[in-house]
Amino acid sequence: MTMLRSCLERCFGRLGYGDELFWYQDLKPHTSGEFSIAVVQANSTLEDQGQVVSTPFATFIGVYDGHGGPDAARFVNAQLFPHFSKFAMEQNGVSADVIRKAIVATEEEFLHLVKRSFPFKPQIASVGSCCLVGAITEDTLYVANLGDSRAVLGRCATPDGKEVVAERLTSDHNVADVEIRKELKKLHPDESDIVVHTRGVWRIKGIIQVSRSIGDAYLKKPEFSRDPLFPPHIFPTSPLKRSVMTAEPSILTRKLKPDDLFLIFASDGFWEQLTDEAAVEIVSKYPRSGIAKRLLRAALEEAAKKMEMRVNDMKRIRKGVRRHFHDDITVIVIFLDHNLRNANSPNFKAMNYKSINTPADIFSLHSHESESRLRPEP
């Protein structure tokens, strides 16, 4: 039994530290270093998805924070990397354009799925996902973002290596940011309700906080915006004239330096609890082994503190109800071991990929079942 359990944990990850909604995968190798992942579920169905794919030409990282249901995040988890790989091989290299094309292709396929499914499953039009993607190839890092998941770099700030500082690599596409609200008002001067303060926060059309995503067809295409089966809180405050959201990613390209030590990719549920600086301090102070799990535990402890309760008591709360205490959280830590970077040219023909995906649901490790249902038609 012990041997079987050990084998399953190596293959699928582990349930975490007395919390049946907690899953983690400890240190695994990637193209130029090591990484670990941890996830905690709060919703009735896990809406976060994440993956790390190590290939002969790049390390690919994805965090997909779904909303309105798991369908979009699962779809992106299944389809985005194949598009990335296809375009990278066609262009014989990784670039910002390759990542943009992969995201656009994934968006188009998901909207096609929505169109096919809408007559018998209209709710799929209100499902979407934030999308945070990283790609590391040779000495270059690419980070693309839709929504408010975030990537943060930890780098040495002093010659002796004792001070490690946080550098945020992404901008949050969230109307909590006054600049995002100004941008939307400028794009929609004839719509006084383009951003509305309701239920305690700013929302686009009184509905959603993020301004960029994959999916959310009902806020991108008028024909999907007024289905009578939608709950009242997801009706736009006025009829949709044109798209009020976009799937155009913000993309950063950065040459990696010897002082760049590690990356933290995480969904917004994590950053709601910990600052960039606090997360980087934890990674820099503690051993690599178990580091993603340690970060997630710190986030849960902070969530419990805000609710004036013990974290052990919060861990006993069942999924669904748990969402009142914190969001689904995914965190991936990528260590950058510069001495391991391949000095040879990337091999775009080799197909020996190694992929770690978070489970579709903490209670089910059969993520392929969900993915197969959502694959687009040929």
Task: List the SSEs and their pairings.
Blueprint: H1 2-12, E1 14-16, E2 19-30, E3 33-40, E4 48-54, E5 59-67, H2 71-91, H3 96-117, E6 128-137, E7 140-146, E8 150-156, E9 164-168, H4 178-187, E10 195-198, E11 201-204, E12 214-215, E13 250-255, E14 260-266, H5 268-271, H6 276-285, H7 291-306, H8 311-314, E15 329-335, E16 354-357, H9 367-374
Antiparallel strand pairs: 1-2, 2-3, 3-15, 4-5, 4-16, 5-6, 6-7, 6-12, 7-13, 8-9, 8-14, 10-11, 14-15
Helix pairs in contact: 2-3, 2-9
Q: Stretches where pLDDT falls below 50 for ≥5 residues?
A: 1-12, 365-378
Number of strands: 16
Given the C-alpha coordinates, what overall shape results?
Answer: globular
The total tally of domains equals 1
Biggest sheet statistics: 7 strands, antiparallel
Which value, in Å, is the CA radius of gyration? 20 Å
- Please work out how many helical segments DSSP would assign: 9
Please state roughly what percent of the residues sit in beta strands, choosing from under 5%, 5-15%, 15-25%, 25-35%, 35-45% or over 45%: 25-35%
Strand order of the largest sheet: 1-2-3-15-14-8-9
SSE string, helix = H, strand = E?
A: HEEEEEHHEEEEHEEEEEHHHHEEH
What gap, in angstroms, lies between the N and C termini? Answer: 43 Å
Under CATH, the topology is which?
A: Phosphatase 2c, domain 1
The first-level CATH class name: Alpha Beta
Nearest-integer average pLDDT: 87
Keywords: Hydrolase, Magnesium, Manganese, Metal-binding, Protein phosphatase
Cofactor: Mg(2+); Mn(2+)
Enzyme class: hydrolase
Domain PPM-type phosphatase: 31-336
